[in-house]
Amino acid sequence: MNRHLKELIELSKLDKSIDEFNPLIEMAEKKLNRRVVKRDNISKKVAKINSIIEDTKSKIDSLENQIKSINEQLTLNLAKEKVIRNEKELQALQMERELANEKLNFVNEEIDKLNRLLEIKEQEMVEANKELEKAEIDLAKVSDEVSKKLASIHEDKAKLYAKRDSKIRNIDQKILSFYEKIRIWAKNTTVVPVKKQACYGCYMRLNDSAYAEVIKSEEICTCHHCGRIIYIEPQTVEAEG
C-alpha cells in the first residue's frame, strides 16, 4: 500500500470521526428544543387564559355599569310616580319598571355566569403558572446539561480538526483535491475497503482484472462502478491468499 493511500485512509477515518459528532450535537439540540417548545406552548396557554380573564373582567365591569344605569333609571321612575297625572302615565311607568327589572335580572344572571367562568379560569391560571414554573426549571436544567455536553463535543471536535489540519499539510494537494471532490457526494464512504471482491461503498462486485489491479497496484485505485477510492486491507489479502 503506497504512502498516499495510507494518508487518505487515515484522513477518511478522521473525517468520519469528526462527522460522528454531528448526530450527537443534533440529539442534544433536539433535547433542548423540545423543552423550549414545551415552555413556549405553556406560555401561550398562560397568555390565552390571561386574555380570557381580562376579557371576562371587562365584561363584568360593563354589566355592572349597566346595573348602575338601570338602578338610576328605577330611581328616576320612582320620582316620576310622585308627580303622575293620570292612569296612562302610571301604566307606562310600571311597564318601564318591569322592563328595567327584567333587564336587571338578566344582567345579574350574566354576571353570575361570568364570575363562575372567572373563578374557573383563575384556578386554571394558578395551575398553568405552576406548570410554566416547572417547565422553566426543567428547561434551565437541560440547557445547562446541553451547554456542557456541546462544549465537550466541540472541544473534542476541535482536537480532531487540528489533527486533520496537521495531516492535510503533508498530503499532496492534487491527491487531496481528488479526495475532496469524491467526498462531496460520497461523504464518509469516500475511501472504502474491498471485501469478498466487492466495493464496500456501492457493494458491487469487482471483476477479476479490476480486483487484481487493486491488490497489486501501488497507485490509488477507484471503484469502476461508483468512483470511490478503494483499497485492500492487509488481513483480507492474507485470508484470500
End-to-end CA span: 16 Å
Shape: rod-shaped
Helix content: over 70%
Output the CATH topology of the largest domain: Helix Hairpins
Mean pLDDT: 92
Strand content: under 5%
* Tally of distinct domains: 2
- Shape-level CATH architecture of the largest domain: Orthogonal Bundle
The total of beta strands comes to: 4
| Elements, N to C (H/E) | HHHHEEHEEH
- Low-pLDDT runs of 5+ residues are none
Q: Structural class of the secondary structure composition?
A: mainly alpha
Q: What gyration radius follows from the Cα positions, in whole Å?
A: 40 Å
By CATH reckoning, the class of the largest domain would read: Mainly Alpha
Outline the structure in words.
The chain has 241 residues and is mainly α. The chain folds into 2 domains: 18-168, Orthogonal Bundle (Helix Hairpins); 173-240, no CATH class. The chain is 79% helix and 5% strand. It has helices at residues 3-19, 21-81, 87-168, 173-186, 208-216, 234-240, and strands at residues 191-195, 198-199, 221-222, 229-231. The two termini are 16 Å apart.
Short characterization:
The chain has helices spanning 3-19, 21-81, 87-168, 173-186, 208-216, 234-240, and strands at residues 191-195, 198-199, 221-222, 229-231. By secondary structure, the chain is mainly alpha-helical. The chain has a 4-stranded mixed beta sheet with strand order 2-1-4-3.
